């Protein structure tokens, strides 16, 4: 290689910028960035992602103490908000703008200019046709050009008749400007989608709330179990609506042999109020059928059982009474539950265990859930006493009880055994620490409450993108030139050539269609009325 | 909810098994066709060349070198199907059997898919088994419809082979008895979103087969230019690499628009069901990856140095992503789309 001989010309600062800009906006770079984007999106499906599942990420890092922190350092748990992923798509969008703007200007000019001049030799074009009109026909070279112009115009071409009055008049025609318009609309719409997503991220919010049957929810910040505000969110944007879960009905498949117990329907009946003094209104909430209220949408994303328990403490007072939300783990609603009783005296009490809606004895004597409906509801709990650690003020997961600092009261391994409660049964805790009663059973719904001001824009822009894409791929942009002349023997000679701009598989068919049109116009026996028609339009001379 | 007709469901499974067997027969016939008809054509060509040479020898006494030139010329330019891909006059019995059995198999498969839908009182695409069987039906139908206009029988062993794989995957990999849909899938968006996804995937299947053939044909063309021996003689039934590329591009363009629609309809449905139109769920990630890869493919066709072989590779990678998205992501990745029906 003779690398040393190559002397790079000095570009200067502006020149370098221009060079970088032209590199960035080149098709090759766009293609490279596109493929890079595809590759960069993949890790997000391989590793747990924080926005979707923060708890799983924490667990993953705990389970992989060596690789976990490194993966985290490279933002592999936040792929879609990571520096590198953002860099790729921002570069891609800059490249896109740099590509679209000049093309739009160029196309604007092209749309306002006449079709290009007629090539000297039409027979060199990809599609070419010619025909001769008998000497006796009424069609002259000028009227044939006018006819061709009219026919092409009717077919959606923009036409321009040139060289009229000379011995080789011709017409230039072009159609399919919407191909490029569609292309530009598609790319601009993608920018629109990106902006809409950003608007949603800035001004939207999303929260989760669990509501037990009979309980209600008021749309204020403190009422949410979990709340993710957009970066520009203000608390006063929350509409002051409220809703109550009147009842929640579930239907399981009782007919199928193979899918017995599979859920068929979840229906929540809600009473909603748009504001504290509005009329209450009953509404139905189902999966796939969200409720719309106060600028938010409310979605039914989960459900489960909330056993109602009463816990009495060592002093004999009721320390807790009410439903406890249990978390289902499988199709039979085998649910884990945690009861924290910080008000119990003299010692705080904690319970950890299972709730089974239909408990049956398994092979090894351990109870297992066999049905999602409550045919034999039972609680299986361990109990503990000690400091639950709730007084320190830092937030604790209500579904997890850290038992490392607590003393065991009930456990299968202890002398006292584990607590097993059927409906309406009670159990005394050892050492006179209190008692627990299984009083009843309620269902609960898990709701997602979502406000996304960007989603309307995203829908509009993606629809525009789809239409633009269709236009850019399926409209054929093509040019046609028709030239006529008079042969020495008096015949009128017509020739035409077609040129596609970009991909156009139908160019050949178009040429054939033109031939058919011309034959019908000039060679058919009954071409006289068409001629009168032409005279009436008055395009004979142009 | 009307109850499931389990007897009809079992008949449906039987139909689908029968269809798989019939497609296997068609597949063998198409392979037989590739093996034999290239051989026959070559034999016919050789005989014609000999006859021509024999006739020419007395007439061309003055120019004795001419037949030898023609002979050497035939060695370096390999035969290929016509660009128009219209039906020729030669009789290809094995291919005819392949097409006839494919039609029969498609009818049986259609009976299986439709009866499953009737048995379940819903559209038959609610789990992996049903995506596979319905997808195979759409692939076979698209292929047979295309056969009416163009002689695409050279694709038969590839396309019908893929159909057989899909049906085997359904029957062996994802067997699921007919059942009601879980609440998350009870939406008219299932009909729109999934049906368009299946059609787009069927088209991608066709273009995948074409892109593989394109690579083989362009390798063959390169060997022809280098004057080497033709190692893929059956490829004489396929048109030139450029023709394959152009046809694949046209089909990919349609499939890309449909895939864009799949993505959008999926987003609208996600908004209805989960409260957000895009959440980078694993399935969404891979749908996006596929979209970007095929977008790259469309751009590659307009980039100098990226047409031809590179574009074909992108089309193949895109299809591998489709397969990955359908199998690995559905079965092994956890996400909101985990309704493969496999326990």
From TrEMBL, chain B:
<dbReference type="Pfam" id="PF01578">
    <property type="entry name" value="Cytochrom_C_asm"/>
</dbReference>
<dbReference type="InterPro" id="IPR002541">
    <property type="entry name" value="Cyt_c_assembly"/>
</dbReference>
<feature type="transmembrane region" description="Helical">
    <location>
        <begin position="285"/>
        <end position="300"/>
    </location>
</feature>
<feature type="transmembrane region" description="Helical">
    <location>
        <begin position="94"/>
        <end position="115"/>
    </location>
</feature>
<feature type="transmembrane region" description="Helical">
    <location>
        <begin position="188"/>
        <end position="213"/>
    </location>
</feature>
<dbReference type="GO" id="GO:0005886">
    <property type="term" value="C:plasma membrane"/>
</dbReference>
<keyword id="KW-0201">Cytochrome c-type biogenesis</keyword>
<feature type="domain" description="Cytochrome c assembly protein">
    <location>
        <begin position="125"/>
        <end position="337"/>
    </location>
</feature>
<keyword id="KW-1133">Transmembrane helix</keyword>
<dbReference type="GO" id="GO:0020037">
    <property type="term" value="F:heme binding"/>
</dbReference>
<keyword id="KW-0812">Transmembrane</keyword>
<feature type="transmembrane region" description="Helical">
    <location>
        <begin position="127"/>
        <end position="147"/>
    </location>
</feature>
<feature type="transmembrane region" description="Helical">
    <location>
        <begin position="154"/>
        <end position="176"/>
    </location>
</feature>
<dbReference type="InterPro" id="IPR045062">
    <property type="entry name" value="Cyt_c_biogenesis_CcsA/CcmC"/>
</dbReference>
<protein>
    <submittedName>
        <fullName>ABC-type transporter</fullName>
    </submittedName>
</protein>
<feature type="transmembrane region" description="Helical">
    <location>
        <begin position="312"/>
        <end position="333"/>
    </location>
</feature>
<feature type="transmembrane region" description="Helical">
    <location>
        <begin position="14"/>
        <end position="32"/>
    </location>
</feature>
<dbReference type="InterPro" id="IPR017562">
    <property type="entry name" value="Cyt_c_biogenesis_CcsA"/>
</dbReference>
<dbReference type="GO" id="GO:0017004">
    <property type="term" value="P:cytochrome complex assembly"/>
</dbReference>
<keyword id="KW-0472">Membrane</keyword>
<feature type="transmembrane region" description="Helical">
    <location>
        <begin position="247"/>
        <end position="270"/>
    </location>
</feature>
């Amino acid at each position: 290689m003779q690398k040393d001989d190559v002397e790079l010309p000095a570009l200067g600062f502006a020149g370098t910028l221009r060079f970088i800009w032209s590199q960035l906006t080149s098709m090759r770079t766009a293609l490279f960035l596109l493929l890079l984007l595809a590759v960069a999106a993949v890790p997000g499906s391989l590793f747990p992602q924080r926005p979707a599942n923060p708890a799983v990420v924490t667990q993953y890092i705990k389970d992989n103490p060596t690789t976990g922190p490194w993966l985290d350092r490279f933002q592999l748990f936040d792929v879609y908000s990571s520096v590198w992923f953002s860099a790729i798509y921002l570069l891609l969008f800059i490249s896109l703008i740099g590509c679209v703007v000049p093309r739009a200007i160029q196309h604007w000019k092209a749309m306002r200019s006449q079709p290009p001049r007629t090539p000297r030799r039409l027979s060199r074009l990809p599609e070419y046709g010619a025909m001769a009109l008998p000497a006796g026909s009424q069609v002259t070279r000028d009227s044939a050009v006018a006819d061709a112009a009219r026919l092409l115009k009717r077919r959606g071409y923009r036409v321009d008749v040139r060289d009229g009055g000379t011995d080789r008049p011709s017409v230039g025609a072009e159609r399919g400007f919407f191909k490029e318009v569609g292309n530009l609309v598609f790319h601009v719409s993608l920018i629109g989608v990106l902006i809409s997503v950003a608007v949603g991220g800035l001004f939207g919010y999303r929260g989760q709330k669990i509501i037990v049957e009979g309980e209600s929810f008021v749309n204020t910040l403190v009422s949410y179990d979990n709340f993710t505000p957009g970066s520009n969110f203000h608390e006063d944007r929350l509409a002051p609506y409220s809703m109550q879960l009147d009842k929640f009905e579930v239907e399981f498949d009782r007919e199928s042999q193979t899918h017995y117990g599979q859920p068929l329907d979840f229906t929540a009946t809600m009473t909603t109020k748009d504001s504290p003094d509005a009329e209450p209104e009953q509404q139905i909430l189902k999966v796939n059928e969200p409720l719309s209220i106060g600028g938010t949408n409310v979605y039914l994303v989960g459900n489960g059982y909330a056993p109602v328990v009463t816990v009495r403490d060592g002093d004999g007072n009721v320390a807790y009474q009410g439903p406890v939300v249990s978390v289902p783990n499988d199709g039979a609603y085998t649910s884990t539950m945690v009861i924290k009783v910080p008000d119990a005296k003299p010692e705080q009490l904690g319970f950890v265990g299972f709730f089974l809606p239909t408990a049956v004895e398994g092979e090894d004597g351990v109870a297992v859930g066999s049905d999602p409906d409550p045919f034999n509801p039972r609680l299986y709990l361990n109990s503990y006493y000690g400091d639950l650690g709730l007084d320190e003020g830092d937030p604790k997961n209500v579904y997890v009880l850290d038992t490392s600092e607590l003393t065991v009261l009930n456990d299968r391994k202890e002398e006292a055994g584990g607590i097993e409660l059927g409906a309406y049964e009670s159990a005394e805790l050892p050492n006179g620490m209190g008692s627990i009663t299984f009083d009843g059973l309620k269902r609960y719904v898990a709701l997602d409450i979502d406000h996304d001001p960007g989603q309307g824009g995203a829908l509009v822009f993606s629809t525009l993108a789809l239409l633009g894409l269709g236009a850019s791929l399926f409209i054929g942009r093509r040019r046609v030139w028709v030239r006529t002349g008079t042969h020495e023997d008096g015949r009128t000679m017509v020739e035409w050539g077609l040129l596609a701009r970009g991909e156009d598989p139908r160019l050949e068919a178009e040429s054939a269609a033109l031939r058919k049109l011309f034959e019908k116009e000039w060679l058919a026996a009954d071409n006289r009325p068409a001629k009168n028609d032409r005279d009436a339009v008055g395009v004979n001379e142009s | 909810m009307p109850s499931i007709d389990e007897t009809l469901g079992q008949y449906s499974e039987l139909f689908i098994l029968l269809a798989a067997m019939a497609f296997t027969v068609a597949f063998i016939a198409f392979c037989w066709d590739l093996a034999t008809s290239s051989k026959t054509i070559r034999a016919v060509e050789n005989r014609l060349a000999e006859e021509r040479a024999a006739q020419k020898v007395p007439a061309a006494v003055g120019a004795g070198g001419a037949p030898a030139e023609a002979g050497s010329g035939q060695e370096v330019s390999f035969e290929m199907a016509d660009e128009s891909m219209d039906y020729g006059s030669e009789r290809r019995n094995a291919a005819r059997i392949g097409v006839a059995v494919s039609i029969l198999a498609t009818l049986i498969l259609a009976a299986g898919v439709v009866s499953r839908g009737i048995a379940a009182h819903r559209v038959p695409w609610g789990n992996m088994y049903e995506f596979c069987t319905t997808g195979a039906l759409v692939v076979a139908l698209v292929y047979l419809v295309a056969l009416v206009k163009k002689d695409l029988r050279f694709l038969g062993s590839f396309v019908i082979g893929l159909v057989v794989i899909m049906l085997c995957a359904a029957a062996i990999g994802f067997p699921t008895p007919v059942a009601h849909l879980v609440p998350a899938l009870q939406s008219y968006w299932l009909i729109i979103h999934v049906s368009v996804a299946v059609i787009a995937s069927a088209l991608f299947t066709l273009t995948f087969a074409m892109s593989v053939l394109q690579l083989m044909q362009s390798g063959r063309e390169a060997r022809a230019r280098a004057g080497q021996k033709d190692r893929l003689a059956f490829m004489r039934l396929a048109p030139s690499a450029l023709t394959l590329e152009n046809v694949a591009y046209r089909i990919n363009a349609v499939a890309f628009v449909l895939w864009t629609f799949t993505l959008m309809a999926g987003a609208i449905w996600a908004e209805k069901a989960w409260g957000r139109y895009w959440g980078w769920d694993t399935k969404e990630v891979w749908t996006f990856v596929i979209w970007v890869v095929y977008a790259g493919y469309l751009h590659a066709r307009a980039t100098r140095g990226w047409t031809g072989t590179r574009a074909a590779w992108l089309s193949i990678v895109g299809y591998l992503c489709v397969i990955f998205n359908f199998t690995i992501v559905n079965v092994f990745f956890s996400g909101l789309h985990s309704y493969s029906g496999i326990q």
